[in-house]
Amino acid sequence: MKTDVLIIGAGAAGLMCAITAGQRGRRVLVLDHANKPGKKILMSGGGRCNFTNLGVTPANYLSANPHFAKSALARYAPADFVALVEKHRIAYHEKELGQLFCDDSSKQIVRMLLDECAAAGVRIETGCAVERVRHREGGFSVATGRGELHAGALVVASGGLSIPSMGATGFGYELARQFGHEVRPTRAGLVPLTLSGKHQERYADLAGVALPAEARSGRQSFRSGLLFTHRGVSGPAILQISSYWQPGEELRLDLLPDRDAAAWLPAQRTARPAAELKTVLADLLPKRLAQRLCELDFGNRPMRQYREPELSTIGARLHDWPLVASGTEGYRTAEVTLGGVDTDGLSSSTMQSKLVPGLYFIGEVVDVTGWLGGYNFQWAWASGHAAGEVV
After folding, report:
1. What is the DSSP letter of 90?
2. What angle do helix axes 78-87 and 375-388 make, rounded to 10 degrees?
3. Domains (ranges, CATH) in the chain?
4. Which strand ranges, in their side-by-side order, compose the sheet holding 99-102?
5. What residues have CB less than 8 Å from 307, skipping those under 6 apart?
6. Which of 233, 216, 248, 221 is CA-nearest to residue 289?
7. Is the separation of the CB atoms in 378 and 53 below 8 Å?
8. Where is each RsdA/BaiN/AoA(So)-like insert domain found (predicted)?
9. Burial class of residue 317 in the structure, from the number of CB atoms within 10 Å of its CB (0-12 exposed, 13-18 middle, 19+ buried)
10. Distance between CA atoms of 201 and 289, rounded to whole angstroms?
11. How far apart are CA 311 and CA 303, in angstroms?
């Protein structure tokens, strides 16, 4: 069988590339080893798909080359995808920080993409694994469980290593290396952090306790929700900082980002001299956490028994609480994979390989990783569209 464009991977990037190329009159075939297309789209955003973010800029992405994503993101913006969503009359809403979600279900986004593929004449084959790829004159020869395929252009949209239970593999990285591309080291991103030993013992029974907080590692910080788990910490603030934090690095938490605790506590001493510290702290923090902090570091006496400088020090500590993480939950629960195909070997405008004409890499397989909150979907749409315009 011959086709103009063969896309490996029926996820967000692959389907967008297929739509764009199909609309140009190209014969497009999409292969995926999973039993249905868009599986990660379906599970995203708690089943409502956080399909983009209104505040997307290149600064919201991690890459060895921070400039690489600029071209594709500029040429396919959040407004472009929103226009597609509105064309299909999918109701959506904005949550915090520019995040856009379906009102109903992520199934609507997958249906929209499949309908657009059908309208563009795109063929999609699921449950079809790629066994071997060879570059030959005029294109590529691809061996699959259903026979040999020949294509003029090959687009690798196979994703990263995150959530292997959904079928994630390192296939795209292996293919990149086969054709001479460098692959930057990969690790789990947007992932809960784990604690171990005494550090875990201190917080394990706080599992389920949640609060607004700011997580900091190095020069990077994120302010959002924090959740204690049986194994460590999670929540948006932790998922965000996990992409920047490395094992062995310091992690600090601001447990009261909306309050000047160093000034508030001495004022409380004057207003409520008989109240115990844990009771006062429980006005702003979850009760169980307030009690644990007092047990660990602050003691628990009536406020009048604390000197004002001591309370100021406690307040400062609440804005700079140390947390010693031992690692992450790994790819099992990670939303994305950091690292991937080195962008030095790709064109930033077309996503085409600089080494092999007609070979393209898009989406998560590339060394471009977005923040939590719709940024990774926007990279998928933008990089898929960039390749689809030229394949």
Report:
1. -
2. 90
3. 2-187+338-388 (3.50.50.60), 193-328 (2.40.30.10)
4. 50-53, 99-102, 92-94
5. none
6. 233
7. yes
8. 187-336
9. middle
10. 14
11. 9
Task: Give helix then strand counts, H and E, for the chain.
Answer: 13, 21
d(CA 259, CA 334): 32
DSSP class of 353 = B
pLDDT digits (tens, 9 = 90+) for 131-185: 999 999 899 999 998 999 999 999 999 999 999 988 889 999 999 999 999 999 9
Contacts of 320 (CB under 8 A, 6+ apart): 252, 253, 254
Which residues are CB-contacts of 136 (< 8 A; sequence separation ≥ 6)? none
Query: Taking a C-beta distance cutoff of 8 angstroms, is the pair 269, 304 a contact?
Result: yes
Closest CA to 205 of 229, 241, 233: 229
Render pLDDT for 265-312 as a digit per residue (tens, 0 to 9): 999 999 999 999 999 999 999 999 999 999 999 999 999 999 999 999
* 35 in Cβ contact with 127 (< 8 Å): yes
Sequence-distant (6+) residues with CB within 8 A of 326 are 194, 195, 196, 197, 199, 200, 232, 247
Q: What is the mean pLDDT of residues 346-375?
A: 98
Cβ proximity of 331 and 285 under 8 Å:
no
Q: Which spans in the chain are helix H?
A: 12-23, 39-43, 70-75, 78-87, 107-119, 171-178, 197-203, 236-242, 261-271, 277-281, 287-293, 308-318, 375-388
Radius of gyration of the chain (CA): 24
Q: What distances in angstroms separate CA 390 from CA 22, 126, 192, 212, 350, one per listed residue? A: 11, 25, 38, 45, 7
206: number of Cβ within 10 Å? 18
Three-point CA angle 55, 61, 66, nearest 5°: 120
* pLDDT value of residue 281: 98
Give residue 190's pLDDT: 98
CA 30 centroid distance within chain: 24
Q: Cα–Cα–Cα angle for 164, 57, 88, nearest 5°? A: 70
What letters, b where the CB count within 10 A reaches 16 and e where it falls short, cover 246-257? eeeeebebbbbb
CA 33-359-132 angle, 5° bins: 45
**Stated length of the chain:** 391
φ/ψ (deg, to 5) at 4: -75, -45
